[in-house]
Structures are given as structure tokens and as C-alpha cells.
């Protein structure tokens, strides 16, 4: 059978457990099932446990560095099933050869790496890609990354991170799609599609990994690795849907999170992994732990030692141990002492072998890696396009932007010349030297790094307009980069004040991987452009937007607080008995020392010119369970430039058995509009999309639903109501269901 057919046949052992919800759970072809059963029959306990062991073949910054003779000997003995921190078509082919030619059972190895936003061609960070509000952008980025990483012999990436994050103090906010379960679900499925393609067997693709299951983004205080306390409704309605969407899109693997949820570390959370993910969602892909997380169960205080930790993780349903060595050291012995563990080991090994089968590795273990393509040129055109689409124009008072031709420009700020930051912290094989900075892209501007404030002020005085790059370098976001204050780093606020004092119009160009809390700093700054960390074409992309060669079209995937102390927050908060009131004399749900709500809300973003919205019209006044309702809205470009408008649809259930969020995103479309053009966006929804989680079920209640269309979560232009005529039970997380969108 050729590889394509094998992979099209799907992947898993237990055909009976398949539901259409999880493509990854489709049964394997009979030949592969038989092969896996035969292998399981031949394997010693030690060989089985070897398959469950993933080892670092190098360090993140020094790939392959641990692949010495002793390591190869371990491969020959079947002591590991997978390597991470390895790469390169030729070295991986050599390593694979040892496994498939020199080990007893000739089982191929699985090669993994964190290929997050590009491999050689470094693209915008994930939060920036989500800011495109265009799943096609996320999909294309994933595809480019997969094609390059595949050429380097890699099978498996630890992406996408689908953790909802509502607290920008958490440094890993940069790696996800922001605060919203619906947007996060759409981006998650697009990323899975981009990495895996319609069929992993077509080649030039990688197995995706939805991580970190689950609640990692809800870390208390925004402190990475810290515990999360999330109620069952919020867990099901907010944190789980993007995982469900990723599973349904066929994500071949999941990674458990470091954190504890309600006191139970996710690496040992049998209720959620075995009970929920496996039993309820029928997910049968491979589940891997996070780095050393099995051993860290001892630190969590739920295991006396690493042996106990290994048994707990196995019982929870974790198939593969990333880097802790606990499975390798203790599982065989534990299973010898307790035979009830053997079937669990067999299941896990079956899933690992199934993943290898699905990747085609049993048919052609050398099918990955292409030395010629591994040296292919960087994909700059696509990188620039994706970067441009990820930019968000937050403020443009007096139409300061686009820049007027011939304007004398001062460009201030070290970040404008920081190539290393442009490529972010997950840079795979990317090189800072490949990045084109804003300084390089705006060669005609009078550049000052800003370390000498007086020199920066002089440059500003000579200019008609001051462009100042502010924010965080690559090293302030990412893993273990939580901050208690998310303002401007040292020195930048003083620099900005000095520039403001010149009276020149200022464009703040905000770089970095998290939304910063800058209300005070940005007061008096007429234009603000959020540019994130945009990859190797960062500078040219920003320059094209500044000069008006292209119009900004991105939107915030997470609100920007006024002050750190507002975090965490979300536009999709619940109503309260005493809703926030602008009048401080009224006791209400707000802070006394800051305005209500974020500085820039979820979904906010401007473009050049003006967009007009028509009324929201519905196809019917009522809908029955199982039926569909269509909501349409017309948008018109009243400006003189071709732009994109992100039309957003929010829902609210005004009276329900439990309090419902004031608004929840339930549809969006990034709509290209020529000058003067009108287009109509039609959203088709089902009652199940308004279900809430109660007592372990998805409840669709009879009653009214408000739909609101607009340009952001706070800029709602029109609304309409319909009624769900009867109650029903939903089957899946409401936010993971996609609204059908048509643009006419
Ligand atoms: C730890 C991180 O939490 C995870 O996201 C990553 O994939 C692994 N390290 C492997 O590098």
C-alpha cells in the first residue's frame, strides 16, 4: 500500500470509539492495526516503555548536541521512541537508520521540535497571527513552517498553543490566540490544518500538538507554571473549546499542561485526560507530557517519588514522557509489580505506534527530510504579507497615518533596530541576521536609539513627525516571563515624555509579545500602531503600513488594559448585580482609580478611511433546535483606499438559568473592501452555539438571544433579537462550533 493510502485510512486502534468529532480518532487501516498488534505481541516490557520515552537529542539552542555514541547505543536497544531538540535532514536520516536498521524491532523514531512560528523563515508570533483575525493567515503560517521543518527531517511540532489567556502578565500570552474561546477555536483549527494538511501522508507536513491541556493560561496572578482555579462552567465554555476544535480538526497529539487545576496537576489529571479527553471526546491521538512534568509531580506534592509520579501519569492517560526519564526508569518495574498497569502501557504504546503509522513512518521511515529543500531560500514575500496582516492600528487621531509623502521622519527607539527581537523567542533555526528591522526599512528617517534622550529630542525637533518604537524585546515574553507590572521597560517612559514635550506629532509603534498597560503613557500620542514581533519581514511590513502602501486590518485578539491592576479581564465578563457605573458615587463593579474597561478592547483595530455599517437583519424571528438562523450585515468602505474590515458578531443571552457573558464572539469575517464598495456578510448559526454548560451538560434554553454586529467588542453598530423555540441538549463546546460565514 502506498503511503498516501495508508494515511488516508486514518490512525487509531479502537475503531468502535470513533465519532465524527475527532478526525484523529479514525480507525487505522487493517494492515496497520495488524502490524501494531503484532509489534505489541513481540515487544518486551522494556521495549514498550522505550517507545513511551522522549529524550532531548540536544538543547534548544544546540540541537543534536547529545547524539553521541552512547545515545545511538540506546537507540539500538530500543530505549526511546522519540527525540526532541533535533533537526536536519542528514543527521536525522542517520539517526533514523540506527533505529530502523539496527534495533531489534526496527520501529522508527519520531522527531519533534518546537516549530512555533516558522522554522527558517520566521513569521509573526502566534498572538500577532491571531491579530489578523484571519484563520487563513494562521493556516498559511503553519504550512510554511511545516514545509520547512519537514524538509529538515522533522515529524512533529509542539504547536499550536491553544491556551486562552486573559492575563497579559502571563508571558506565554505571546504564544496563543488571545482571550477568546471562539477566535481561539478558529485559529486552532486553522493551525492544525496548516501543519497537518488534509492528509499527513501527502508529505511536507508535520503532526501538530494542541497544548497545554488545560487551564495553563489561567495561572493565578499570571505567574507561569502556577496553579489555576477555574470553575467547571468557565473550564468548559472558555478553556476547553479551542482544544475541542483542535481535536476535531484532527490534531495528532495533545500535550498536558504543567499546572494544577483545582489542586490536581494536569500531568496526573485522570478525570480530564482519561475521563474527559479520551472518554467523552473520543480523542485517540497521542498525549505527551510537558518537559519534565512527570517528575515534577513530586514537587506538586502528589507523588512521593518519581516512580509514583510515573504511575500516576500513566493512569491519567499520558502516553509519552517528555524528558523526565521517569517512565523509562520506573514503569517496567512498576508494571511487573502491578499487572493492571500492563494494559495501560499497551494502550499508550499502541497510540504512539499509531501516530508513527499515520505519519507514514512504517512505510517509509526516510520519507521526511530533503537536504535540497532544507537549504531553500527564505520565503520573504509570504512572511511580509502575513506580517502586514497582523498589524493593528489602535489610534489615529487627526489621520496622522498614513505618513504624508515627503514628511521628515525621526525614528526613535532601540527596538526599531533590534533584529533579534523581530524574530521572537521561539526561533527554531531562524537567524536574527535574516530580519529586516524598521530602521533598515525606513532608511531615510533620522534614527536615534533613544539611549541619549537629548539626541532623540533634537532629532524629533528636526522632524515633521516622530516615530517611536516602544515596548518589549523578545526576551520579556514567552515561557517563564511573567511580569507583575506590564508597563514600558526602564527608560522608555521618560524618553516618550521628552518626545511629547517637543510638541511634534508622535506615532507610537508598540512592539512585543503582550498587550501592555499604557493608558498614561499614550495620553497625548495621536497615533498608536501595535506591531508585535513580526518575524524577518518586520521592518518592511511596518513601513508599508506607515506609508499607506498597505492599510492596517488586524484587530486585538486580547484587550489592552489601562493599568496592570485590571488584569485579568475579558470583554466576555458576566453581568453583575451592580454593573460598572461611570458615576463613582454609585457603588458598582469597578475600580475607583481607573476608568471602566480596557484602554483598547478585544476586537478593536482601525483602518485608513471610514467604514459604515448597515442594520443587522435576521432570516427569521425564531429558530428551533436543529435549525439554522442567518444574520446579515452590510459594510461600506467610505474611504479612498482599499482596506479590510473585520466584521464581528457577538451574542448575549439576556435571561438564562445562569448568568451569561455580556457578549460572546460568535462570528467574524475579514472583508476586503475597495473604495466605495459595499459587501454583505452573512453569518449562519445554530441554537447549539448559544448553549451553556450546566451540571455536566450543554444546555440550549428556550428564549431570546441578542445578536450584535460591529467593529469591535465595544463598537457594536446594530443588534437584533431572535428566539430559540424549545430547549435541547448540545453535544460539544458551544464556542468550538464554527459559524458559517459568506461574503457577498
Ligand atoms: C516546555 C513548554 O511548556 C512547551 O510548550 C514546550 O513544547 C516544551 N517545553 C518543549 O520545548
TrEMBL record:
One of its GO terms (biological process) is carbohydrate metabolic process. Gene3D superfamilies: Glycoside hydrolase family 3 C-terminal domain, Glycoside hydrolase, family 3, N-terminal domain, Immunoglobulins. It holds the Pfam family Fn3-like. Residues 1-24 form the signal peptide. One of its GO terms (molecular function) is beta-glucosidase activity. Residues 645-713 form the Fibronectin type III-like domain. It comes from the Bacteria. Keywords: Glycosidase, Hydrolase, Signal. PANTHER family: BETA-GLUCOSIDASE (PTHR42715). Belongs to the glycosyl hydrolase 3 family. This is Beta-D-glucoside glucohydrolase. It comes from Sphingomonas trueperi.
